Amino acid sequence: MHLEVSRIVKAEPEKVFAAYTDFEAMPKWSRHLTAVRVSKREGDTVYLESEGVSSRGTRRKTVGALKLLPPGRVESESETRFTRSRRTVAFEAVPDGEGTKVTATLDVEVKGFWGVLLRPGVKKEVAESSATEELASFAAFVEGAPG
What we know:
The chain is α+β, with helices and mostly antiparallel strands. The protein has 4 helices and 7 strands; from the N terminus they run E-H-H-E-E-E-E-E-E-H-H. It has helices at about 15-20, 25-30, 110-120, 125-145; strands at about 1-10, 35-40, 45-55, 60-70, 75-80, 85-95, 100-110. The chain has a 7-stranded antiparallel sheet. The longest helix has 21 residues, at about 125-145.
């Protein structure tokens, strides 16, 4: 499945990028995450372990690597028991200082046997709605942050 969602955040790109890469703060704005821990840093790559709740309400653990390309991009890969995901989040200044356009692109592959079993249950509209809500929550977090 492939999807792309965007949102304007009313803050300069550097502040938006810094907020997005404050990994331990992610549970404050992501309703799907309960904990995030940086397990290792190597150059521009950060390795994360996260715990959370899926859109269906089940608990899940994820491990992933994010490549930080400041101030314009974060690329990541993650894996759960059932899926493999690639995500790119781009941060682009909006003309006239109106803020930052944040665009999240996501590609999810359901692995092996689970692909056959789960594919009918994976609805693009639901995933897109969830991603849009997540960006809205992130924007509110950034816009409400002091400084």
